[in-house]
Design goal:
It catalyses: N-succinyl-L-glutamate + H2O = L-glutamate + succinate. By secondary structure, the chain is of the alpha/beta class. It is built from seven helices and 16 strands. The chain is globular and about 60 Å long.
Length: 321
């Protein structure tokens, strides 16, 4: 069990699927999915996921370091914990995805996409969350989905929160700030992401944590995200976390740039960073007769003109004062 991530990346199952490490029971459920259950009282149910995109390796390396003392029985655990490596096939291939972007397929959207590696994986992960959350009656449910961005960012560490009908609890948002996130982005419409699935279907407090730029295994400088790693370690073992003296800036999605046809053109250079500001009236993108213009002081997030037809090619944000 101690080599859970290494075996997953190698495409191997562990020789033992259940074992005890100190007060924590370890269960290998399927490829890339493991549950850790402490013997004593728990704070709640927590899902920590990484590798939804196979080219985003820093969170996988970070998760490996966080899990190591738990899997050796050296540190306590105060949550019922589900650990997920989202897309093992893409991680092994060093590709963002094999057939289709996995993080657009959740919430049953996999049922209408062309069958392939990611549609099957989305179905399995939805079932894994269903089983995990239905097995307990915890009032507190969290899901932290660890990612890296394709592009550099004016805020290297930021969080994206899914649409939610109720206000977000301030203690959850404060924890994200204490974990070193410099900006928080609030979605206002549903999406096909893993974090939206856990929030919408299982009432989890969910966040996609974007931690730097996507790089191959071995090329990540994890010291840049030491605040986040320290916060995650403290979350797992229940130790106190020092409060940050800088609150993350908050943004909401103002408009989405959608690539509807092969004629889509994004009027941004390949080195345009996330959170770049555009003046009001700037032509952002066009698709046939459709034009997208910036409103006052909007910032771009996730600009990508190469997405599949019908998917977002970027989000425009406005700051919440």
């Amino acid at each position: 069990m101690e080599d859970f991530i290494a075996r997953t990346l190698a495409g191997e199952a562990p020789p033992v699927q259940r074992c005890q490490r100190g007060p924590v029971r370890l269960e290998w459920l399927e490829e890339g999915v493991m549950q850790l259950t402490p013997a004593g009282p728990t704070r709640g149910a927590l899902v920590v996921s990484a590798g939804i995109h196979g080219n985003e390796t820093a969170p996988v390396e970070m998760l490996s370091e966080l899990l190591a003392p738990l899997l050796r029985g050296e540190t306590p655990l105060v949550w019922r914990l589900l650990v997920v490596l989202g897309n093992p096939a893409a991680l092994r291939a060093g590709r963002r995805f094999i057939d289709y972007d996995l993080n657009r397929l959740f919430g049953g959207r996999w049922q209408t996409a062309e069958p392939g590696t990611e549609t099957a994986r989305a179905a399995r992960l939805e079932a894994a969350l269903e089983t995990f959350f239905s097995a307990g009656d915890e009032a507190i449910r969290w899901h932290l989905d660890l990612h890296t961005a394709i592009r550099a960012s004016a805020f290297p560490r930021f969080g994206v929160l899914p649409a939610r009908p109720r206000a977000w609890p301030e203690d959850f948002l404060m924890w994200l700030g204490d974990a070193g996130l410099q900006a928080l982005v609030f979605h206002r419409t549903p999406g096909g992401t893993f974090s939206h699935l856990s929030c919408e279907r299982f009432a989890a407090l969910s966040c996609t944590l974007e931690l730097g730029k996507a790089l191959p295994f071995g090329q990540n400088d994890l010291s840049r995200f030491s605040l986040t790693q320290r916060a995650l370690a403290a979350l797992l073992d229940g130790s106190p976390l020092p409060a940050s003296d800088i609150a993350p800036r908050r943004f909401e999605v103002a408009q989405q740039l959608t690539r509807r046809s092969e004629h889509f053109v994004l009027h941004m250079t390949g080195d345009t960073e996330n959170f770049t500001v555009f003046n009001a009236g700037t032509l952002l993108a066009e698709d046939g007769d459709e034009r997208y213009y910036a409103q006052e002081n909007e910032r771009v997030l996730f600009p990508n003109p190469s997405v599949a037809l019908g998917l977002r090619a970027g989000l425009m944000l406005k700051e919440i004062k």
